[in-house]
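Tokens as discussed.
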């Protein structure tokens, strides 16, 4: 059964390049048109990536030849354009977050259900090689039953890195809603729904200065956030996201089990769960530095787990391709709106807890997405057919 879905890319900013590149790798989708508030920018991207049409936003959303709108606009208008696309009869795949607030996110969920149209949402990095391998390590019981996790991403902020950083200090962004979705979605993909959360947050500076130009950016959101998450399966997690840290040995994500520890360790803020590949390290209780005295050096006894899945490179748009296959095969998409809503509610809950000084109990839940098959793209039948073979392959690789 072969069907290709026509995609209209909306928002031709910095992030659009990797989507243009990734979408060319899948036969199930083709970007047929692109649009931007700046039509010249859309025309430039269309020429660069050999896209047949550059048009206005309204023309793109109402184009009868477009099946899916890929919404890459800034967070403040995610909900506006996603809702407009749904009203126009289009499926939507959106950059994160789903919306800047729960009210608008709920409107998207409700309209999607009413129309029967799909809404997928980034991040899709949990579908990459490292986090899919991490999930397999957990499911094979290599570190025993998971007890807790920690996730940290701290750096000096985007004003010295991003060409247009202003929106990252407004509602719908900040370190929590800009970078936090990668980490919280990763945790949800590994442990399932979150039951409750708590947090503390602060806005360290009222304005930030762009290096070289000296331009001032008003800060409207907290820039240092700490949170605690309790999952429905009993796992508890600590989370920190900050724009206020000049230097650190972070970021990293660690998972603690009854038999050992999994470590996703990185060298800068942009090589954590917000990318698809990278090293995954494990240390069992037999290898623990506490198993002997004097304790071993930090770097000793960690074993690198060979990746058992594909997509090591930056593959933003993988979730869009999976959604297209899901529409064709009539199955749930993995990077879905319910998980995006649940992630958003957890982040809103952390800020709510900071304001009110009490735990926030989540009202939403979501299903833990199925693992991505090692030979993706493929159907769900292929996953079942290869599950025993994949398990044996992983065990053999790990034992070696």
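Sequence:
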């Amino acid at each position: 059964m072969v069907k290709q879905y026509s995609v209209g890319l909306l928002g031709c900013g910095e992030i659009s390049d990797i989507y243009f590149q990734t979408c060319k790798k899948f036969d199930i989708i083709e970007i047929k048109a692109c649009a931007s508030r700046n039509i010249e920018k859309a025309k430039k991207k269309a020429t660069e990536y050999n896209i047949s049409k550059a048009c206005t936003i309204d023309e793109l959303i109402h184009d009868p030849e477009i099946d899916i709108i890929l919404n890459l606009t800034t967070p403040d208008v995610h909900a506006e354009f996603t809702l407009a696309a749904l009203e126009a009869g289009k499926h939507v795949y959106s950059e994160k977050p789903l919306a800047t607030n729960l009210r608008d996110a709920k409107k998207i969920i409700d309209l999607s259900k009413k129309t029967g149209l799909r809404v997928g949402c980034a991040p899709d990095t949990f579908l990459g090689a490292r986090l899919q391998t991490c999930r397999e390590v957990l499911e094979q019981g290599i570190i025993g039953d998971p007890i807790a996790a920690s996730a940290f991403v701290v750096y000096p902020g985007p004003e010295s890195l991003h060409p247009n950083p202003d929106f990252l200090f407004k509602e719908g962004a900040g370190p929590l809603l800009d970078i936090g979705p990668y980490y919280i979605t990763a945790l949800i993909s590994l442990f399932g729904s979150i039951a409750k959360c708590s947090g503390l947050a602060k806005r360290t500076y009222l304005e930030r200065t762009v290096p070289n130009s000296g331009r001032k950016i008003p800060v409207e959101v907290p820039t240092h956030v700490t949170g605690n998450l309790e999952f429905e399966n009993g796992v508890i997690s600590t989370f920190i996201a900050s724009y206020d840290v000049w230097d650190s040995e972070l970021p990293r994500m660690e998972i603690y089990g009854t038999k050992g520890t999994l470590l996703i360790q990185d060298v800068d803020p942009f090589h954590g769960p917000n990318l698809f590949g990278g090293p995954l390290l494990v240390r069992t209780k037999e290898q623990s530095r506490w198993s002997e005295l004097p304790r071993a050096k930090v770097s000793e006894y960690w074993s690198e787990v060979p990746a058992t899945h594909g997509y090591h490179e930056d593959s933003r748009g993988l979730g869009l391709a999976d959604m297209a296959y899901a529409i064709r095969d009539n199955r749930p998409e993995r990077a879905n709106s319910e998980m995006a809503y649940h992630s958003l509610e957890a982040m809103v809950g952390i800020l709510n807890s900071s304001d009110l000084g009490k735990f926030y109990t989540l009202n939403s839940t979501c299903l833990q997405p199925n693992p991505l098959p090692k030979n993706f793209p493929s159907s769900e039948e292929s996953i079942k057919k290869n599950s025993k073979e994949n398990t044996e392959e992983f065990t053999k690789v790990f034992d070696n």
